[in-house]
Amino acid sequence: MILPTYNEREALGALKPRLDAVLRPYSSEVLVVDDDSPDGTAEFVRSLGEGSGWRLHLREGSRGLATAVLDGFASARGEVIVVMDADGSHPPETIPRLVEPIRERAAEFSLASRFVPGGSDEGLRGVRRLISWGATAIARPLSPVHDPMSGFFAMRRSVIDGAELAPVGYKIGLEVLVRCRPRPVVEVPFAFVPRLAGTSKLGSRQILGYLRHALRLYRWRFLGPGRASRTR
Question: CB 3.0–4.6 Å: which of 65, 112, 120, 210 could bond 152 by disulfide?
Answer without folding.
Answer: 112
